């Protein structure tokens, strides 16, 4: 039987050591908890959230804290705000990422690689804090116990490259007034002077600006100098070309037409330019334009497929003051003339001013100088001034099927219609009708003309088919189907007396030979 001393004796490996078990139990409990290293920031405390916070709580806390320390809101020391903002952003970056959060919970900030913010993450923090694009890479450093952003700066030049050219270098202030608050279109290039592609396109952009300078605003933004502008415009590649339309509420259009050569830029800009001209293909469209628009009627004959850029620019500049139209695809050689080209004796290209009285409009003046914007501008202003001096002009309008269907001189029209039924182009008669229309322009009557050679049924309607005359003047009360034919000379005094007599109650002895006038 073993003695007491023998019963208590154990082998060295199994020997009980006072205090050791207690220490091991403490270590086991300690290692079972998430570890926060003695050194490093407490990201949970920075955001003011518990350690078991979910992603929604983390995001909500971050939004509140980042707003609190944003330079636009922070009333404390700006450097202190910057430090706090970086701490909040760093905490959110880690805790919002499941893998990084796991490493942090186990090993604390020391467990994360030093300087764990990537270049892009640091730039993102910088953009959010300063509201602009950084110049080059960004590092976050500690100075005097505070965390600071440090811009390393890009290598290479940063000076503007479009000085003394027809390209306007847009500063932040100019961009705000000319682009953000624009009332007319702008073509803008965003570039960096240390970017090879930006420098390579410089000569082409200048060539493009030299061509379009008179009728388009052309600008450039140096993104090394105006980083806030480029950041707000979401410019990430250089060079970048944008079209800003005259409506400041619409987003810009992005150039994507291949190589930014002067030709391609010009072609795209021309397509983007607003066009306030009327494109005319035939006499019907021409007559409608002459009847329905106000101001001097100015017409361009061109061999282009559409309105040229200069003509578009002029149409915008004189919109509401002059009426511009384009006759496209004219033949310079004169062999294959368009329908309207055949009606006029003009060279191609040619600009003419039209009097709307005649069937196709009468050419009152041809622009005789080289087609330059400055010269055309002065010519337009002269035409407008002459029109204002003469006062509001009235003319006989063409009696067309569309007008009759709209109610003019039709079966339901109760007003008097005075019809000039013409077969030729007598200048004396044209002048008489012009004066007549001008005198009665404020009276509730209608004055129309119609070509009886194209519409011989009109002669039958008014029982004029046996007359030897070529032109007639008729007073018509359509709703009553009654009319009267003027039998005197077609001169102003005689026509004026005829109109005055009818309006003052003179009889209308004739009755239409047809239910209604048809063309």
Explain what the structure shows.
With 519 residues, the chain is of the alpha/beta class. It folds into 4 domains: 43-151, DnaJ domain (Helix Hairpins, Orthogonal Bundle), CATH 1.10.287.110; 168-272, Glutaredoxin, CATH 3.40.30; 278-390, Glutaredoxin (3-Layer(aba) Sandwich), CATH 3.40.30.10; 397-511, 3-Layer(aba) Sandwich (Glutaredoxin), CATH 3.40.30. The protein is built from 20 helices and 18 strands. The protein has helices spanning 4-8, 20-31, 43-47, 55-68, 78-95, 98-111, 119-130, 172-180, 196-200, 202-212, 227-232, 262-272, 283-292, 309-317, 339-343, 373-390, 401-405, 427-439, 457-461, 492-503, and strands spanning 138-143, 146-151, 168-169, 186-191, 217-222, 240-244, 253-254, 278-279, 297-301, 323-327, 350-355, 362-366, 397-398, 416-422, 446-451, 472-477, 482-485, 510-511. The chain has a 6-stranded mixed β-sheet. The chain has a 5-stranded mixed β-sheet with strand order 3-5-4-6-7. A 5-stranded mixed β-sheet has the order 8-10-9-11-12, with helices on one face. α4 runs antiparallel to α5, α10 packs across α12 (262-272) and α18 packs parallel to α20 (492-503). It starts with a helix and ends in an 8-residue tail after the last strand. Residues 1-38 have low confidence and may be disordered.
List the helices and strands and how they pair.
Blueprint: H1 4-8, H2 20-31, H3 43-47, H4 55-68, H5 78-95, H6 98-111, H7 119-130, E1 138-143, E2 146-151, E3 168-169, H8 172-180, E4 186-191, H9 196-200, H10 202-212, E5 217-222, H11 227-232, E6 240-244, E7 253-254, H12 262-272, E8 278-279, H13 283-292, E9 297-301, H14 309-317, E10 323-327, H15 339-343, E11 350-355, E12 362-366, H16 373-390, E13 397-398, H17 401-405, E14 416-422, H18 427-439, E15 446-451, H19 457-461, E16 472-477, E17 482-485, H20 492-503, E18 510-511
Parallel strand pairs: 3-5, 4-5, 8-10, 9-10, 13-15, 14-15
Antiparallel strand pairs: 1-2, 4-6, 6-7, 9-11, 11-12, 14-16, 16-17, 17-18
Helix pairs in contact: 4-5, 10-12, 18-20
């Amino acid at each position: 039987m073993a003695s007491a001393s023998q019963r208590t004796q154990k082998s060295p490996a199994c020997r009980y050591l006072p205090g050791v078990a207690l220490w091991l139990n403490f270590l086991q409990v300690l290692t079972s908890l998430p570890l926060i290293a003695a050194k490093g920031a407490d990201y949970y405390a920075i955001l003011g959230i518990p350690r078991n916070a979910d992603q929604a709580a983390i995001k909500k806390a971050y939004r509140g804290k980042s707003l609190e320390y944003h330079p636009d809101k922070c009333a404390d020391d700006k450097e202190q705000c910057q430090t706090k903002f970086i701490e909040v952003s760093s905490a959110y970056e880690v805790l919002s990422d499941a893998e990084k959060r796991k490493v942090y919970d186990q090993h604390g900030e020391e467990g994360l690689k030093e300087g764990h913010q990537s270049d892009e993450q640091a730039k993102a923090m910088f953009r959010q804090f300063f509201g602009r694009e950084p110049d080059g890479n960004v590092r976050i450093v500690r100075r005097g116990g505070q965390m600071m952003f440090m811009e390393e700066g890009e290598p290479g030049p940063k000076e503007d490259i479009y000085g003394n050219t027809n390209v306007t270098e847009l500063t932040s202030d100019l961009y705000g007034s000319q682009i953000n608050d624009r009332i007319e279109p702008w073509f803008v290039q965003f570039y960096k002077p240390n970017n090879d592609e930006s420098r390579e396109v410089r000569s082409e952009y200048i060539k493009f600006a030299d061509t379009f300078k008179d009728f388009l605003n052309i600008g450039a933004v140096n993104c090394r100098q105006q980083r806030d502008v480029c950041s707000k415009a979401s410019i990430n590649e250089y060079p970048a070309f944008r079209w800003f339309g005259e409506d400041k509420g619409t987003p810009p259009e992005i150039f994507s037409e291949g190589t930014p050569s002067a030709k391609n830029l010009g072609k795209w800009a021309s397509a983007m330019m607003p066009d306030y001209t009327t494109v005319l293909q035939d006499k019907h469209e021409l007559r409608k334009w002459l009847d329905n628009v106000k101001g001097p009627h100015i017409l361009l004959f061109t061999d282009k497929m559409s309105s040229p850029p200069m003509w578009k620019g002029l149409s915008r500049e004189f919109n509401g003051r002059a009426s511009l139209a384009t006759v496209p695809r004219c033949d310079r050689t004169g062999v294959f003339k368009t329908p309207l080209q055949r009606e006029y004796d003009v060279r191609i290209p040619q600009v003419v001013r039209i009097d709307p009285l005649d069937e196709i409009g009468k050419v009152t003046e041809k622009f005789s100088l080289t087609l330059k914007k400055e010269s055309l501008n002065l010519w337009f202003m002269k035409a407008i001034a002459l029109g204002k001096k003469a006062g509001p002009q009235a003319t006989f309008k063409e009696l067309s099927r569309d007008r009759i269907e709209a109610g003019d001189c039709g079966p339901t029209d109760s007003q008097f219609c005075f019809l000039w039924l013409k077969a030729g182009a007598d200048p004396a008669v044209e002048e008489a009708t012009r004066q007549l229309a001008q005198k009665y322009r404020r009276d509730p009557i209608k004055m129309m003309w119609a070509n009886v050679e194209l519409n011989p049924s009109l002669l039958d309607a008014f029982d004029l088919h046996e007359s030897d005359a070529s032109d007639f003047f008729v007073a018509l009360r359509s709703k009553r189907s009654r009319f009267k034919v003027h039998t005197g000379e077609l001169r102003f005094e005689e026509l004026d007396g005829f109109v005055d007599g009818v309006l003052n109650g003179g009889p209308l002895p004739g009755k239409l030979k047809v239910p209604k006038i048809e063309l």
